[in-house]
Amino acid sequence: MTDKKYLNNLRVPTIENPLRILTSACLIGTMCGWEGGHYSKLEILNLSKCKNVKIIPFCPEDYSYGTPREISDIHGGEGIDVLNGNAKVITESGIDWTDGMINSSLKMLDIAKKEKVELAILMDISAACGSQVIYDGNRKSENPIYQIGMGVCAAQLHKNGFKVISQRDFESLEILYSKIIKN
Ligand code: SF4
Fold this sequence. Notes:
Number of domains: 1
Oligomer: single chain
Bound molecules: iron/sulfur cluster
Shape: globular
Radius of gyration: 16 Å
Structural class: alpha/beta
């Protein structure tokens, strides 16, 4: 089922039974970015104020490596390749974070299952949370390259049947809002 079809078929949530949305914690203002900042977005902050929405925030990189920390990117593939053992997550200084990132993805999956999340909205570009676009190799290189693909944690959720959208997928967010404001 496409993301759009899935979103169109989402139930209309109520205060008694709110829509359960997993988000990258940085999107709702948690200071968990690699440099200790946040990347909050109004569209997501507004969601967190809706009484018929339950936001479940999680920062996978903070879980494994704390904050602040180095920047890391995927080398040799995308998130699913990391999960399959065919690509690695390497920090700016060359440290291999592959195992920690996989652990983080499993923790995120565990939370998604326990909370029975109905949608994940994750921060694009991140090697962990990227849902549409990520870097192909080191973003700090002379010629950084983007690739279409998911980060490790987004890929883990997707692989296990959870719907993941980007914070800048405004078409999907519009469908989501149309459900939420119906109530
Ligand atoms: S994008 Fe994901 S890993 Fe990066 S700071 Fe936000 S929640 Fe943490």
